[in-house]
Amino acid sequence: MEENSLKRTALFDTHTALGARMVGFGGWQMPVLYSGIAQEHLAVREAAGLFDISHMGEFLFDGPDVLEFLNRMLTNDLARLEPGQGQYTLLCQDNGGVIDDLYAYRLGDTRHLLIVNASRLEVDWMWIKAQRNARHKTLQLEMTDRSGELSAMALQGPKAAGIITGVFPAAAELRKNQIAELDFAGGAAWVSRTGYTGEDGFELVVPNEHAVSLWDQLLSPGQALGLVPAGLGARDTLRTEAGYSLYGHELTSETTPIEAGLGWAIALDKPDFIGRETLAAQKQDGVSRRCIGFKMTGKSAPPREQYKIFAADGTGREIGEVTSGTHSPSLGYGIGLGYVETSHAEPGTDIEIKIRNRRFLAQVVKRPIFQKPD
After folding, report:
1. Where does the GCVT N-terminal domain start and stop, copy by copy (predicted)?
2. For position 2, what pLDDT does the model report?
3. What is the mean pLDDT of the segment spanning 250-271?
4. Which domains does the chain have, with CATH numbers?
5. Predicted confidence band of residue 373 (pLDDT cuts 50, 70, 90)
6. Does residue 154 have a pLDDT over 70?
7. What value, to the nearest 5°, has the Cα angle with vertex 262 and ends 256 and 266?
8. pLDDT interval class at 362 (50, 70, 90)
9. Which terminus, N or C, of the chain has the lesser number of Cβ atoms within 10 Å?
């Protein structure tokens, strides 16, 4: 996609003033780095980072039948949520293939908010609309795509709670996956305690016209505590260390949540939802391949997406493929995620990754790949 056809977030000028390198991602011009990926990554692990995630989409649902409708669309069980709570969930096809992974929040008795991936926004919206029109016309609900009106940012890291209280004093009281609408000097925002880095943190959704003000109110005083602006490059290395899936990599329409290791986000005790029959069968019968985390155990270049994975049992047989790979700034060696035959998915299993026509030894590890010492 040409640069002049890419959309800009409300924070675009702020990023360029901070010296960000901008790249195309999901149809948007987004900052990939400011000072450098490794520096921003380590700042998030040790202090805090502030990310623009305005490319994400926001769908708002309201009405007496919203819970019934969304519970038929999504794999997790929204009925478990009290107002002010959220959960990770997935949108699947009838065959169990993943359309998107997302966060669902119950804002009130009837109001719900879905946060969806930028690259899947239009696909998600059209799928949900089609299901509404084809199967659920009689249900009473309103659905609105608010993505064009709203900006979002993520404040992540061990010092995030100390920083956010300067703007939202009540935010530190939020527990994991809770959300609240909170006022700040200049407006109001939805503030949730969640993230995509493996650290404590918050995600904030705010009207576009208040985005620059909120960014500045967080970044300027936060810098004294080590807060840095962070780009998509660090967001990707952080989520890989945490073992989190990314749509288009670990998740596609050809993979199921069971294969991806996301069975905990599937509520098979619900009476019905799209994809349930396939997922229930996979949970009972097992699957032929699974998503793994792995670490390189010898000196090598970093593993990358689409590199082939081989058995290290003497057969030399190809058993899978890397879906995400990088040099881990926290660990100092190559790590990645990928799919392998189930027989080779157990943590501790030796495997080989083909890098530049040579095979290098690696080992399957539990996710998260990086765990902070207690």
Report:
1. 11-270
2. 59
3. 98
4. 3-56+148-242 (3.30.1360.120), 57-145 (3.30.70.1400), 288-365 (2.40.30.110)
5. confident
6. yes
7. 85
8. very high
9. C
Q: Which residue has the tokens 């924070």?
A: 11
